[in-house]
Design goal:
Blueprint: E1 21-26, E2 32-39, E3 43-44, E4 68-75, E5 83-86, E6 95-98, E7 103-107, E8 120-124, H1 141-144, E9 148-154, E10 160-165, E11 169-172, E12 178-180, H2 189-195, H3 204-207, E13 217-220, E14 224-227, H4 250-261, H5 278-284
Parallel strand pairs: 3-13
Antiparallel strand pairs: 1-2, 2-4, 4-5, 6-7, 7-8, 9-10, 10-11, 11-12, 13-14
Helix pairs in contact: 2-5
């Protein structure tokens, strides 16, 4: 933690090599809340369900939801020790707002279309502890009809709202009243497939946030250390794929990663395993989720 002049105020130990931080917010009480991800440092299998099933060495990790877990951490310069909370088995979580009463509101676009999950969670930051996890909140029927939640914001009066896409709207979390933002609500299979997983807590964007890479070097059981490859800039013309160039085209890449190692992702659009529709996934791998602009 740095002060405004860049001097180190405090160093916090981490349980992973690299982490992706999505949002940092200061609470009314002066604590710092960070929505981030934590990647495993254990050995990862490239076999069936290898990415979704966690890794060797993760047996003691609470709420193990795969090789990447969404996390919420509270950092303090003084007072109680810093704490972290696993948001698994919820999926990709990318935005955070802290309400005036200290509650945290987390937008979880990765839960879209996943049975028994909500597009956002709201809970007191005081409940964040390292030895517990957040339970998935079953959505109401009205919540299930909403679009993909991509952003969260606190309101001056103590309320909160989230932004959705497909359809685009602002939704008040208290009563689900919405303000349409206009535009068409066309189905985008490639975008949905990249950012959601109807049957699991891992998504493509978990390791490739906004089409980039998470900077993590994985310890694979059969090929050794490999760094997450970047997808920004597109994949066409860069064949063969993967670290060793052993996947000759996009169809083989989809089969190896989405069919075997990350099962469930194809449930959002199984036709993408075929050559022609797969162009849509390639086009959207480098297109980030649109977020609510802050002034």
């Amino acid at each position: 933690m740095l002060d405004p002049e860049g001097a180190v105020l405090q160093r916090f130990p981490g349980g992973a090599d690299r982490e992706v931080a999505w949002r940092t917010v200061v609470t009314p009480m002066g604590a710092i809340v960070i929505l981030h991800q934590r990647a495993t440092s254990g050995r990862v299998s490239t076999g069936d369900n290898g990415y979704a099933g966690g890794a060797n060495g993760d047996a003691g990790v609470p709420c193990n939801g795969g090789i990447v877990r969404p996390m919420l951490s509270v950092l303090r310069v003084e007072g109680p020790p810093s704490r972290s909370l696993s948001l698994a088995p919820n999926a990709l979580s990318i935005d955070l707002a802290v309400l005036p009463d200290g509650k945290a509101l987390v937008a979880m676009p990765g839960n879209w279309g996943r049975a028994g999950t909500s597009g956002w969670l709201e809970f007191p930051t005081g409940l964040i502890e390292g030895d517990r996890c957040v339970q998935r909140t079953p959505p109401s029927e009205a919540m299930s009809m909403l679009g993909q939640v991509v952003a969260a914001a606190a309101l001056p009066d103590g309320g909160a709202l989230v932004q959705t896409r497909a359809p685009a709207a602002l939704v008040f979390t208290s009563d689900l009243a919405s303000i349409p933002l206009g535009g068409s609500a066309e189905a985008d299979t490639g975008h949905r497939m990249f950012h959601t997983n109807p049957e699991g807590s891992m998504t493509c964007a978990s390791c490739h946030p906004e089409g980039n890479d998470d900077g993590h070097t994985w310890n694979f059981s059969d090929v050794g250390p490999r760094r997450t490859p970047m997808l920004r800039g597109g994949l066409p013309g860069t064949e063969p794929f993967h670290w060793s160039g052993d996947l000759r085209d996009f169809g083989h890449l989809v089969d190896a990663v989405l069919t075997r190692r990350l099962p469930g992702a194809l449930a959002a659009g199984p036709s993408l395993a075929r050559a022609a529709p797969s162009r849509r996934l390639r086009a959207h791998a480098a297109r980030p989720l649109r977020r609510l602009r802050r002034r």
